[in-house]
Design a protein that fits this description.
Strand content: 15-25%
CATH class of the largest domain: Alpha Beta
Radius of gyration: 23 Å
Structural class: alpha/beta
CATH architecture of the largest domain: 2-Layer Sandwich
CATH superfamily of the largest domain: Dihydrodipicolinate Reductase, domain 2
Helix content: 25-40%
Shape: globular
Strand order of the largest sheet: 3-2-1-4-5-6-17
Number of helices: 16
Number of domains: 3
Distance between the termini: 56 Å
Length: 445
């Protein structure tokens, strides 16, 4: 019996836990700060157990890792290297859906020496995006071609039939994480030119993408696209862009959120009774007047009829409602995230959507040029698992199962860009109705 340790019991973890419990000869322990959440995931399954684990209980964490064959970390990203160090020390494999951090990169040598696989970035974005892209890139190279342009986009959004608020967004994962991502810098290559985007300007660098079946979507840079040039084997590519999808209007609105300082993580203490109107006025360094919308329009350089202000008003940021967090040291970002969580939830029976699209241009020695698209549109199950939960956690669960079954024998710190990883994972995802549809148009030759 292979023993799997799942660290964390957040919004995306249920499909992973249930998939692993359904595997013959696997048992699963879910350790979480809130054991009731872990209990709900295991739901009395005879091969599952749960326990409480706090972030500072490192001795307990090490003991748990020592007692299992593989650890899946769904903890906050800064904790992954801690988990990895214990896994390497006790020669246990590890899986996480998060980006490889510099601290994790440094563990590649020790992991190889220990014969341990530390598989990262095996969710949806990052994860399915890497795997579906590499399948096409390798195919082009094997046919003698060269990829000269690659643009990749992914977004977790309300399904069109559930897109019923002015922001065009609802939360299927951490609101704070979504807000924090709005502070990331961006870097990409366009027609041979490197573009560097400072965090405060992230939402100025957006463009429109036509997605089959969805129409026009808004897209903006997703972190450092050029960090994947070597990993993808595309060092001399002309255009390399990885972006995030949103419905139209998101970027203009979020730019004003940034400009107001609502994503600031500086701790502030707000007195009891502080209202959103007072908070918003305070961000402008003013006291609320009788026409806060007008003052806000002037401050942000907007027309008073702007739909950005409509979004702010709908969210209650100009209202006399009390802040959700008072009498304690908090941050503007925490207040915004808490308010979004209150107002932008999925209602029972509503479904979310993952849209993942790749756009390639490849050239071949005979003069032919191929334009290749790969599209994944996946919907959540009404009153069941969200698409975000399925597409984030099932790749990690499949990767963990393949490692424990000996189908993946690599060691060191990896992301899923090798055939030995992406082929079996993508094949199993297709069996679970998560699949990318590829289309090719050839011109010339």
């Amino acid at each position: 019996m292979k023993k799997v340790l799942v660290l964390g019991a957040g919004l995306v973890s249920r499909p992973l836990v249930r998939y692993l419990l359904d595997q013959p000869d696997f048992s699963v322990t879910v350790a979480s700060r809130t054991v009731s959440k872990a209990d709900a995931l295991v739901a009395g399954h005879p091969k599952g157990k749960t326990m409480t684990l706090l972030a500072d209980e490192t001795d307990k964490l090490e003991k748990l890792i020592r007692e299992h064959d593989l650890a899946i970390s769904l903890l906050p990203a800064p904790l992954h290297p801690v988990v990895a160090q214990f896994c390497i020390k006790h020669k246990k494999h590890m899986v996480t859906t998060s980006y490889v951090s510099p601290a994790m990169e440094k563990l590649d040598g020790p992991a190889r020496d220990a014969g341990v696989m530390v598989l990262n970035e095996i969710g949806v974005d990052p994860g399915i995006d890497h795997m579906s892209a590499m399948r096409i890139i390798h195919d082009v190279k094997e046919r003698g071609g060269k990829v000269v342009s690659f643009k990749s986009y992914c977004g977790g959004l309300p399904a069109p039939d559930c897109n019923d608020n002015p922001w065009g967004y609802k939360f299927s994962w951490s609101p704070r994480a979504v807000c924090t991502a709005g502070k990331n810098t961006g870097r990409y290559r366009e027609n041979g030119k490197e573009i560097n985007v400072p965090g405060p300007d992230l939402f100025l660098h957006h463009h429109t993408v036509e997605v089959e079946g969805l129409g026009e979507m808004e897209a903006y840079p997703n972190r450092d696209s050029l960090g994947y040039l070597e990993l993808y084997g595309l060092e001399d590519i002309n255009t390399m862009f990885r972006g995030t999808f949103r419905y139209q209007g998101w970027c203009d609105c979020l730019k004003k959120v940034v400009d107001l300082g609502m994503l600031d993580e500086t701790p502030v203490t707000y007195p009891a009774g502080t209202t959103f109107a007072q908070w918003t006025a305070g961000l402008m360094k003013k006291t609320p007047s009788g026409d806060l919308r007008k003052e806000l329009a002037l401050h942000l350089g907007l027309d008073e009829t702007s739909d950005v202000l409509d979004r702010f008003e709908w969210l209650g940021l100009l209202s006399d409602e009390p802040l959700p967090i008072v009498d304690t040291e908090t941050t503007p970002l925490d207040i915004l995230a808490a308010r979004m969580d209150q107002k932008m939830k999925y209602a029972p029976g509503e479904r979310d959507m993952i849209a993942l699209c790749h756009y390639f241009t490849a050239k071949f020695p005979n003069g032919a040029e191929e334009r290749i698209t790969s599209t994944l549109i996946d919907y959540g199950r009404p009153d069941g698992d969200s698409s975000m939960a399925r597409t984030v956690s099932l790749p990690a669960a499949i990767g963990a199962a393949l490692i424990l079954k000996g189908a993946i024998r690599m060691t060191g710190v990896h992301i899923p860009v090798a055939k030995d990883i992406y082929n079996p994972v993508l094949d199993e995802l297709a069996n679970l109705d998560i699949r990318c549809v590829e289309k090719t148009t050839t011109v010339g030759a």
